[in-house]
Amino acid sequence: MLRIEGMGLDLLVSEIFGNEVDWNDNRLDDLLEAILTPNDKWALIFELGWDRIDSLYHTDARGCMRILTENLRHFHRREGFIAFARTG
């Protein structure tokens, strides 16, 4: 299990809102893509400050990052979600 919280999400939010971010060559989107892309089956759960799941998305690693980015961009419309892939 991989748990991403604190600074990783804070840096992503800062970048989404146009701030320059020093990722020290450890970008969150690169990490997720490196972990998820080689695998046929995976699921990620994002509980963005709430204890509920609002949506379920069948997607790939890049789509997962797009969904996360959109959720973080819209503070008042954020949703908890599960993103999953099953290609094999």
Kindly describe this structure.
With 88 residues, the protein is α+β, with helices and mostly antiparallel strands. Helix content is 36%, strand content 18%. The protein has three helices and three strands; from the N terminus they run ααββαβ. The protein has a three-stranded mixed beta sheet, with helices on one face. The longest helix has 13 residues, at 61-73. The chain is globular and about 40 Å long. The chain starts with 6 loop residues before the first helix and ends with a strand. The model has no long low-confidence stretch (mean pLDDT 84).
Give the topology, please.
Layout lengths: L6 H10 L11 H9 L4 E6 L8 E4 L2 H13 L7 E6 L2
**Main beta sheet strand tally, sense and closure:** 3 strands, mixed
SSE string: HHEEHE
The oligomeric state is single chain
What is the mean pLDDT?
A: 84
The total beta strand count reads 3
* General shape: globular
> What fraction, in percent, of the residue positions are helical?
25-40%
User: How many whole angstroms does the radius of gyration measure?
Assistant: 13 Å
- Given the helix and strand composition, which structural class is it? alpha+beta
Amino-to-carboxy terminus distance: 21 Å
**Residue fraction in strands:** 15-25%
Q: List the total number of helices.
A: 3
